[in-house]
Structure formats: C-alpha cells, structure tokens
C-alpha cells in the first residue's frame, strides 16, 4: 500500500496487480504473479475457473484460445490437457513453458506473502465451484483472513451471496461496469453481503465513491492500462487500484 493525497489528506491505497503484473508478463501465470511480488504489489488478482475433471485453475477467458497454444473451452478440457498447454508464449518467447496454475498452487505459493484477490470467473458455468473454493481456503485456515489479505469477488452476485454464506468471515467484492448498479437501491442491496464495490473506472465518480463509503463498503477500481487511468483513480478516494502495471499507481516511481 502507499499513501496518496486527495484534498490535502494522506490515505492508504492498495496496489492490486491485475492477473499478476499482466502488463509485463503473461497474465495469470507464476511469472506474472512473481513479477507482481517483485514490484511490491499489495495484492495479486487471479481468475478462477474449473477443468472438466474438477480441478480449480487460473485463467481469464472461458476458452484457452487467446492465452495458450491450445483451443477449446476450459470446462471441456481435463486438468491433464490444460496442464500441457503453453500459457506463456503469447506474451513473448521468453515465457515459453509457463503453465496454467492451479488454485491450490497459488494459495500455497503466495498466501502470507502478498494479498490474493480471488475472482470467480463465470461461476454459472461451474456449479458447485463455490464449495470447492471454500474448502481449499478452509483447509489452509484462510477462511478468517484478517491478516492474510484474502478477498473474493465476481460479476455473478448470486455466487457472491453463496460465498458469503460459506465463508462468512472472508471479505466479498461485487464487480460491475454497469451504471445500473450504482443506484442507491442497488448499492444498498450489495452492502447487505459485500464488503467491496468494485467498478470499472469508467463509472467512477466522486459521488459514487462517497456513497459506497457511506454504506460501509470499500471500493477497488479496474483496470488501469495507462498512466491517465492511473492518475484519474489516484485523484478519486478509492481504496485500491487494480492495474496491469503496478508501477503506474506507485508514487515511488
Ligand atoms: O479485478 C477486476 C477485473 O479483473 C475484472 O475484469 O475481465 O479483467 O476479469 P476482468
Ligand atoms: Ca479478473
């Protein structure tokens, strides 16, 4: 975290490395997460999905086509099939051989070292994935993460309500890029189970930030891919900035 200044006051802003430091290394791979740690991010953001045979894996798209040398839907491929894919070369030859990580691997390698912002990606495609995620966290005693910096978020609000029941002590975030979710009524409904309201920066205004805070929620906004976007969010009173480039939001640079 670093101190940012708005209206003359210093405040703490968390630096969240989106899919790892995705601007610098292949997203959602160990290379990208290690890079984020090296760049002193406060959190890594990961996208969780599930293989055909039930393994929780870290990948953003619901197909493997864009980020690997394979084709097909994540949910139709076995873990063995997913694990043979090259998830690094699309970002550069030097990353050849990076694998699709598992959720377990990420928890074991990074918990306690850096915060983990866990996105359940398209949970509607993976019935029961909430239970599997909850089990992995409980096995590691990460379900009361005051000091472990674990947050779970999704665009799927029903899934987050379920997570809130399964893991009542773990902070929850709701993701949206839709203005319809910024109404007073919508925000109030989110605040019944969510700790974070996490909007695309295109819908962030001073008023919105104030409303979210007055309902007792924090606000993390995404996704910074330019210095302009970083500067805009730094001028707002947000609690965290989710960025492909951790250095853009770090005042030490
Ligand atoms: O963490 C926020 C951001 O990751 C949401 O969008 O599509 O990059 O998963 P997306
Ligand atoms: Ca994400």
How does this model look, in words?
With 253 residues, the chain is α/β, with parallel strands linked by helices. It has one domain: Alpha-Beta Barrel (TIM Barrel), CATH 3.20.20. The protein contains eight helices and ten strands. It has helices spanning 30-38, 79-83, 103-110, 129-139, 157-166, 184-191, 206-214, 227-234; strands at 2-6, 9-17, 43-50, 56-58, 115-120, 150-154, 172-176, 196-199, 218-224, 240-243. The protein has an eight-stranded parallel barrel with strand order 2-3-5-6-7-8-9-10, surrounded by six helices. Helix 6 links the parallel strand 7 (172-176) and strand 8. The longest helix has 11 residues, at 129-139. The two termini are 14 Å apart. The model has no long low-confidence stretch (mean pLDDT 95). Calcium ion (CA) binds at residues 45, 47, 119. GO terms for molecular function: phosphoric diester hydrolase activity. Keywords: Signal. One of its GO terms (biological process) is lipid metabolic process. It comes from Cytobacillus oceanisediminis. InterPro entries: GP_PDE_dom, PLC-like_Pdiesterase_TIM-brl.
Total DSSP helices: 8
Could you tell me the CATH topology label: TIM Barrel
Report mean pLDDT, rounded to a whole number.
Answer: 95
Query: What is the CATH class designation?
Result: Alpha Beta
Largest sheet: 8 strands, parallel, barrel
Query: What Rg do the Cα atoms give?
Result: 17 Å
Stretches with pLDDT under 50, minimum 5 residues? none
SS strand fraction: 15-25%
Described by its quaternary structure, the protein is single chain
What ligands are attached or bound here? Answer: SN-glycerol-3-phosphate, calcium ion
Number of strands: 10
């Amino acid at each position: 975290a670093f101190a940012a200044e708005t209206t003359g006051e210093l405040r703490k802003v968390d630096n969240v490395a989106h899919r790892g430091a995705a601007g610098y290394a292949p997203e959602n791979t160990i290379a990208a997460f290690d890079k984020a740690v090296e760049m002193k991010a406060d959190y890594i953001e990961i996208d969780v999905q599930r293989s055909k045979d039930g393994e929780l894996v870290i990948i953003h798209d619901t197909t493997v086509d864009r980020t690997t040398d394979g084709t097909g839907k994540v949910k139709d491929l076995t873990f063995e099939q997913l694990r043979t894919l090259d998830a690094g070369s699309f970002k550069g030859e030097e990353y050849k051989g990076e694998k699709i990580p598992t959720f377990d691997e990420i928890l074991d390698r990074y918990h306690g070292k850096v915060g983990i912002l866990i996105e359940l990606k398209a949970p509607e495609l993976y019935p029961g994935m909430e239970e599997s995620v909850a089990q992995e966290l409980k096995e590691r005693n990460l379900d009361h993460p005051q000091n472990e910096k674990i947050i779970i978020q999704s665009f799927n609000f029903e899934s987050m309500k379920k997570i809130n029941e399964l893991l009542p002590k773990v902070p929850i975030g709701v993701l949206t890029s839709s203005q319809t979710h910024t109404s007073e009524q919508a925000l109030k409904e989110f605040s019944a189970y969510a700790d974070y309201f996490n909007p695309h920066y295109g819908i962030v205004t001073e008023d919105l930030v104030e409303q979210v805070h007055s309902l007792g929620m924090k606000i993390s906004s995404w996704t910074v891919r330019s210095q302009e976007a970083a500067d805009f969010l730094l001028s707002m009173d947000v609690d965290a900035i989710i960025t492909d480039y951790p250095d853009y939001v770090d005042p030490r640079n």
